[in-house]
Amino acid sequence: MMNLLLGYQPLLDLFLLHLGLAYAQWLVLRAGVFSLGTVGLAAVGAYTGGILVVTYGLPAPLALIASALSGGLVALALSVPLARLRGIYQAIATVAFIQIVLSLNIYATNVTGGAQGITGIPKTVGTPLLLVAGAVTIYLMYAITRSRLGRAFDAIRQNEAVAASLGVSIVRHQTLAFVLSGALAGVYGALEAFHSYALVPSQFGFPYLIAILSYVVFGGRTSLWGPIVGTAVLILLPEVVRPLADARMLVFGILLILTINFLPKGIADTLIERARGRRLGARRPAEADTAKGS
Amino acid sequence: MLLQQLLNGVVVGGVYALFAVGFNLVFGVQRLLNLAHGAVFMTGAFVAYYTVRAGGPLILGFVAAAVASGVLAMIIEIVCFRRLRKSGDAEFGAIISSMGAGMVIMTFWQWVSQTQVLRFPFDTVPVVIYRFWGLRVSLLQLLMAAAAIAIVLVMAWFIYRTAFGRQVRAVTDSERASMLVGINPNRIYNLTYFISGALAGAAGVLVGLAFNNINFTMGEPYLMFGFAIIILGGLGSIPGALMASLIFGMVQTLSIAYLPSGLTTAFIFSAMFLILLVRPNGLMGREEAGSLRGRR
Amino acid sequence: MALVLDNLSKRFGGVVASENVNITVPKGKITGLIGPNGAGKTTIVNMITGMLAVSGGTIRVDDTDITRAPADQICRAGLARTFQNIRILPENSVLDNILIGFHRHERCSTLSALLGLPASRRETAAMRARAEALLERFGMRHLAEYPAGGLSYGHQRRVEMMRALASEPEYILLDEPIAGMNDVESDALAVLFRDLADSGIGILLIEHNLRFVTRLCEHIYVLDGGRLIAEGAPEAVLSDPAVLTAYVGGEHA
Ligand SMILES: Nc1ncnc2c1ncn2[C@@H]1O[C@H](COP(=O)(O)OP(=O)(O)OP(=O)(O)O)[C@@H](O)[C@H]1O
Ligand SMILES: [Mg+2]
């Protein structure tokens, strides 16, 4: 029994690390920011943490705080051009940002270790700490959802004109969402660094971006459950169906196409919607039947 | 020396133009970003390589690459976009969907090439150097420039001078209205995606020849350059994309020659951010309304 | 104390959507704005609420110039609106749609919202109570939990009104609020609008239903082709030959 659990421990760690980044991605999408830059911000946090610990010998907890700050600050700087852009342009700019981080990490060899990256990071993060981080993250996301911020994010995502007409400052809220998401990505980037022994620049590239996006799209982009369900299913799937393990990226690619076309809200959001429909249907008042379209 | 660099830049820019014009053509027609365009480009290089490997002449490889890439782009539109366009949130959906398609295509070529770097057989294009006015031009460069110019001219003629082009522009303006005058929008989309894919495939062959390096990640940087180019030229604008490609090719060659190596990409994309800061719709893009995001 | 449009103009390229429009919306009264389709009524509301840039003229609320203020600040200056082409948040429940209207009155700090501190939770609870009171007033209490996207147009319009009222505006701009409603529904709303005005809110009412406008407004403005062609008491305005021509011409166009 113990052995079985231990066998799954690496998987649990992986789940918790990816869950954090999935929430970072979820948070920006929720506020209607079309950012795909989460892994770039995670790279910023990971490198900040790695360099501070390895080169400057800072204790890991301090480095973690610095990683959150660096992720948040870079996001803040990035939000200035992003705030002026809409949809597709935001996506393009943030993908370009990933590329900038990647090439700077490769270029600045004496700081970042170049293409070889950073090795010899003391492993200070284990499953218990990741569990705590996961719980804190979920709580924060829950608190945001239930607060005025969550309501403002929802309004902006669904209709910017409505949000603005009700006094919601689009730029301020989207900047806030993006900075929070950057800080979260920074923290989880650093956790990833402290959890393994090494960092390489290519770690934070397109495949990672696609994995994170898959979790959120597949799980659901609006409910709190989305990232949990998406990350869990997509991390477990290759383990359960062994042949899929070698073709992980192929599976993610196909799933992205299928989900966005046939289940655009993702599993969790669709199920929650169905459940709500059933619950209300049971005591449906006559008026609700005169649906629109008349 | 500077002149030589500029010349090299123009040639590179011509190849970018093949890539970016197709990318932008599709965006102009459907307002959707095809993130699998880099994978389509790569497919061209692979198809040409395997054709030449199997003993076919280069020109056959070129044609096969263009056709295969064109058909692939068409399939991407049908599989990834057609359903989405009918739903509300196609802009986001298309990015996700085509990103998935790009991943599938990449994995396919990784599997076929077994993660190897492939090279065209020596002398696929004879190494001949012409010299004039103190400049050096290789046969390959001439070939690239000629192919780029020819293809872009044919395209321009197609879009601006033929009935098909008029239909494309009608569908771009309004899908509903064009259906009323008897145009089948899906046929137009098939054709535009075919053209866009064929252009990318041709670019893939030329790049594969120029660097003699074909591998399953070769599409990624070009997709990124494609982004930079359409930001520079304005999303959806074909002449803008052409101009921007040439400028981009020259800036890139110059920065490789004169900037510390490795910084080129960072430099180019930082420049792109600066442009976006000043002109949110791209350097030559039209103003899209929106006073919700700040002062009017 | 009034919302004052002074020589307001708007051009879309070559199209003149409004030209030198002067309108005053006093507090505590219902002011009508009518005109044939395409006259430029919605354009004016969009300019007032910061959704469209103004080409010329000024907009003032109680002597504060809001001509170039961004949309969210205009709301905070006390203006709210409804949309002619209904704009609700379709995924959210009716209650959540109204809750967002309270945004400008939410005071708890960003930090306490982030951390889910009691201040934030208390505020959310208080807003819910107020939203439920509004639902009661509009007779939609039983629909609170329904996704707003699935309601009938009449209900969706009322969700928009509740949402606008939640921001506790000094002025409210209603763009065709009773379109698609039956007489019973519109009569109920007429009573409601009267009450709102009596409580001191200034209302700008855009409506094609002239009977409704005549019944509620003391002063109406008539717009045609972006220009004001008449204003005054309803009976006088509606018998004005220029207005008749505009309407007859408009209906046959
Ligand atoms: N964004 C825009 N771009 C170009 N022209 C516009 C735009 N919005 C409105 N117009 C034009 O401005 C004129 C006024 O339109 P508006 O919607 O204000 O009319 P309206 O009085 O509200 O009509 P209705 O009674 O049909 O609602 C119309 O000719 C319309 O075509
Ligand atoms: Mg109108």
Describe the 3D structure:
The complex is a heterotrimer of chains A (294), B (296) and C (253). Chain A is built from 14 helices and no strands. Chain A is an all-alpha fold. Chain A has two domains: 193 residues, no CATH class; 77 residues, no CATH class. The N and C termini of chain A lie far apart (61 Å). The relative contact order of chain A is 0.16. The C terminus of chain A is likely disordered. A two-stranded antiparallel ribbon of chain B has the order 1-2. The longest helix of chain B is centred in the first third of the chain and has 29 residues. Chain B has one domain: ABC transporter involved in vitamin B12 uptake, BtuC, CATH 1.10.3470. In chain B, strand 1 and strand 2 form a beta hairpin. About 2% of the residues of chain B have low confidence. In chain B, helix 2 runs parallel beside helix 4, helix 2 crosses helix 9 and helix 3 crosses helix 8. Helices cover 73% and strands 3% of the residues of chain B. Chain C has 253 residues and is an alpha/beta fold. Chain C has ten helices and ten strands. The longest helix of chain C is centred in the middle third of the chain and has 20 residues. Chains A and C meet through helix 6, helix 7, helix 8, helix 9 and helix 13 of A and helix 2, helix 4, helix 5 and helix 6 of C.
Short description:
The complex is a heterotrimer of chains A (294), B (296) and C (253). With 296 residues, chain B is mostly helical.
- Rg of chain A, rounded, reads 20 Å
Oligomer: heterotrimer
Fraction of residues in β-strands of chain B: under 5%
The dominant shape of chain A is globular
Largest sheet of chain B: 2 strands, antiparallel
- CATH topology of chain B, by name, is ABC transporter involved in vitamin B12 uptake, BtuC
Mean pLDDT rating of chain B: 82
Instruction: Please name the CATH architecture of chain B.
Output: Orthogonal Bundle
